[in-house]
Amino acid sequence: MSKGFAVWFTGLSGSGKTTLGRLLEKELVTRGMRVQSLDGDVLRQGLNSDLGFGKADRDENIRRVTYLAQFLSQNGVATLVSFISPFAAARQKARELIPNFIEVFVDCPLEVCIERDVKGLYKKALAGDINDFTGISHPYEEPEEPEIKVRTDLNTPSQCVKAIISELASRGFQGFACTEVAATVSQALDPVYPAEELVVGLPGSLYSKLAVACKSSNPADVAAYTTRVLRDHLQDLSGADPLSDISEAEKEAIKKRLRSFGYID
Amino acid sequence: MGKRRVMVIGLDCATPQLVFDQFEDRLPNLRKLMASGITGELESTVPPITCPAWMSMVSGKTPGDLGFYGFRNRKDYSYDGMSFALSYSMKDKTVWDILSELNKTNIVIGVPQTFPPKPLNGWLVTSFLTPGIDSQFTYPGSFRDEVFKVTGDYKIDVDDFRSEDRQRVLDEIYDMTEKRFKLARHMLKTRPWDFFMMVEMGVDRIHHGFWQYMDPDHIAYEPKSAFQSAILKYYQYIDEQVGTLLEHADSDTLVLVVSDHGAQPMEGGIALNQWLIDQGYLTLEEYPKAPTPISQLKVDWSRTKAWGFGGYYGRVFLNVEGREPQGIVPLDGYETLRNELISKLESMTDEQGRILGTKVFKPEDVYPEVNNIPPDLIIYFGDLRWRSIGSVGYPGIYRYENDTGPDGANHSQRGIFIMNEGRYFIPTRGFLGLAQGPPKERPPVRLNGLHLMDVAPTILDWLGVSPPPDMRGSVVRPLASPNQVDVAERTDG
């Protein structure tokens, strides 16, 4: 079983916690990890629907989530928590209870969040229609020493996720399938791509293909086919002609046969 | 219960009227499978051609989903930008891709569109779309040596198929088939496997090459030909070979014998571009003195509304303003022109004035999704009893021999589907493997409405894998009672 951990996204409403959580979830799933997301908005509709937004209720909200994340992380699940979690003390409590706690400060200036206003909440809060709104009428205590800080106003979501993956990889929280594959690929392609770079740099969607290519017991085959998977990926990205590695003579031979059987004229 | 496995024996072009009717009593092994199994005609793709049909079968997707519509596809809207649909074009997952990820072991031999070979958990030998045995035609690459060791020199396909030396062509077909089945037996015997699939191309080759000797109604029928029973004898040979593979099935092996399309006698060819010229849709700068492929001719694009391609079916492309480099068909006249062409093509007659029964399809009408660049129209001349000829320079539009040489058959829309489980055709065995008695009994079931795309989900279902939701086919479940045979509601229309 791979080692569990909890990535705790904290930040203002609209800073990008849910977006990053979803992207990270996708990446980790394709890398062979068991993942559970705990999203503030979702939990407030279910488990925490009895809670409001005052200090006591916010603390209770976080206490319950901490409890869930603790169990999940202990049991080998990659747990992604996306909560505003404005109070340092509550996050500190979570840090103490949850094994392998990784705090990610989703940093985005308030004015950018107001401009984004994805849920239309800032507008209401500024108009005074919502009380206790974090950043407007309720404090947000910025983390002092988060494991990771990402600026979502300066970087794209995928750049932020890459930074998180990189941090997770350096802590060995990648899931065995992925790191083993990366090691095999790296060995096959040595010395161009170190395994750590592959783990961080390749999209998770490639891992299932690379994992299949790594199953062969013959190192030459592994090298040939992992190279092919990577090259196909690059060709897909660049829109290059996928047949460029088939020689003209080979293409002609195929055409000749197709013509001979009447498939083409 | 033992370990569930799937064995798919693909016979390219094996056709229902021969397998289920004319030859049935002379094909003991297929008959054994049918006697207690599920059989039916298997609806092919539009068009019913090797590419895209096999990939549609092993992925449960339409050609529109897959984004290739034939061997050659437009890669852009230029006049000569064509690319071949080889393994790279196949972006969707095949059943063996899915099974590989689940650590199941696969043996895949000769399935079209697998060259260049892509990694899988197991072993793969590419198909007839491989340039030759000097190219890399196996996965893993090192497996190639073993293929040569087992088969001598593995035969990808028949060379010089259009030769007048029919005996040599026939000998080559047998040679190819023998080697492929030999390799298949070797693999089944020496490897562990969860999924086995092979496709034999010989059936297609023999139909195209020898149908006219068998069928008295064929336009080129030669009575008392030495090759009169060539097709029957070859089917019997294939049946024998299938029998040798069935020895490697056990009671929990699901066996499928399938084809990608059927066959029918070819009546002739329609010179499509010639017809477009006659009708004023296509203008050449210079008319050729001898039949010449359209790609070698200078087209006056400023006076051309449509051009076409030949093959077993026809394709028409429109020269659309703002889309093609020198397009002249205005976008708001596109639909009108397509409808006009459809109406003219469908009312085409033969030289005696009888309606040919031509069918014309708009891609968006036959595929729920249309990816990449499809032809603007897809044509079955005489419902595929006539092929499409792309070359220009014939005295008229009707041809009674192929532009590339003699051809006895063309494709038809339905292939074959035969499915059974080992327990219903393998004798039940008792303690120490001693034969105890006949196989379990079950009445045969004949199913209507089967589609190529049902094959992939059926394979996965038998192996305990839920078919991905984007597979369009339905699971065909081999249950004990014929009343329980279940073809779930189809979603592809």
Structure description:
The complex is a heterodimer of chains A (265) and B (493). With 265 residues, chain A is of the alpha/beta class. Chain A folds into 2 domains: 5-170, P-loop containing nucleotide triphosphate hydrolases (Rossmann fold, 3-Layer(aba) Sandwich), CATH 3.40.50; 176-259. Chain A has helices at 17-30, 40-45, 55-74, 88-97, 110-116, 121-126, 157-170, 176-189, 195-201, 207-213, 219-238, 248-260; strands at residues 5-10, 35-39, 78-82, 101-107, 148-151. In chain A, helix 3 (55-74) runs parallel beside helix 4, helix 7 (157-170) packs antiparallel against helix 9 and helix 8 packs across helix 9 (195-201). Chain A is elongated and about 80 Å long. Chain A starts with a strand and ends in a 5-residue tail after the last helix. The mean pLDDT of chain A is 82. Chain B has 2 domains: 5-266 and 412-487, Alkaline Phosphatase, subunit A; 268-402, no CATH class. In chain B, helix 7 (166-190) runs antiparallel to helix 8 and helix 8 runs antiparallel to helix 9 (230-246). Residues 480-493 of chain B have low confidence and may be disordered. The A-B interface holds A 208-209, 211-213, 215-216, 218, 220-221, 224-225, 228-229, 232, 241-243, 245-246, 249-251, 253-255, 257-265 and B 49-50, 70-72, 75, 83-84, 86, 88-89, 97, 100-101, 116, 118-121, 128-132, 135, 139-142, 157, 160-162, 205, 208, 293, 309-312, 387, 389-391, 402-404, 407.
Can you tag this structure with a few keywords?
heterodimer, A: 2 domains, 12 helices, elongated, B: 2 domains, about 20% strand, disordered C terminus
